[in-house]
């Protein structure tokens, strides 16, 4: 039997594929296979001993109840779990959050603090739930859950009520502020920004702004009450610039008008020109800019009172002293200052200019008299005293130019008070106004000489060398000394002189222009 390449049974030494009941031929060679003893190998396996079950942390507790109780932020879940240390820690942390929020103006960043509080209560609620889950399992407990729901509802309702109370206080403050009662409003706003700071409402910031407005208003009002008008006016003006949209604006407007009025009517006699101007300017401003206030209606009467006080010097005959204040009142708008005041002012002023000018003339203050008379004629040309004023003005101007003293002439009339002719010729291209004064006064204009030179040098012998064809004016005067002068433009030299008409003589005077 060929057994090569055939598997051998180690026990019989025969091919393993020969059935056991097959007879073996003894004549066949037998393969000798050494017998090897095998010892089966076993892998050593080590098994971990199971841990003994953890001992429960305490009697059964409701996970949901513990979480809800801690969701209040007051550590009630820890109290439910009988963990007094964690209860104390929770209360301290919650109190700390509240304190820091109050001290750091939480209302300015409400969502930051809402997020912080929400995170804290969620954290402690989850922690309480974890601790409760480690307790012995037991029957479902409904009491703690109900207690937790009630506790959360009470805290939530309390906070909502806290917010509603804060809003009510704020509304009371706004109502008081709108009425101008900043004392009441200020106390209400202080409560909102104090005890009700943690409502985190927009009312807190609004109350802070309104408190600033009330403080500024009260400061101005205090200055007004102590009659410190200057300070009050400045403070009210500043308020309007800084808080233009404040509900106090109408009160500021009225109080500012009242302060201006009080200042304008706080004068004392004797009243100066400056006092009168400042007072009446303010009263006119009130009529213009504060027409909707009560003091605007009082302004005309106050202006009339000031006019009466300011014109007392006029009533005592101090005409020159009255001119400045009368000029101010006379130039006012009758529709604003009052028609009677302005009419009286013009009547008084005309008389004052006349009387003052005459007194100045008599006192030899001739330049001042010329100014008074000139103003009179410019303002009141149709006044019945105008002829006398004009004669006095001419005489004063001639006297100043010739450095002489002349008597007060009669009212200006015609140019022929006498019979002796006196002719004036103009040898220039400019019309010349001549003022002549002596026993009488005259004002004449000699027409321009279109063919004459524009001007002559002073003392030029060619000037007036030939008066034939020159424009002229002839006066008929009395046999007395007269003086004359020219009224010309500033760039022309003034010509002055004197003459004495004589009966039977033909007299003339030629004038011309020379650069000044």
TrEMBL record:
Transmembrane segments annotated in the record for this chain: 62-81, 86-105, 111-133, 145-170
Region (Disordered): 1-22
One Pfam family cited in the UniProt record for this chain: TPR_6
Keywords: Membrane, Transmembrane, Transmembrane helix
Name of this protein: TolA-binding protein
Species per Swiss-Prot/TrEMBL record: Actinophytocola algeriensis
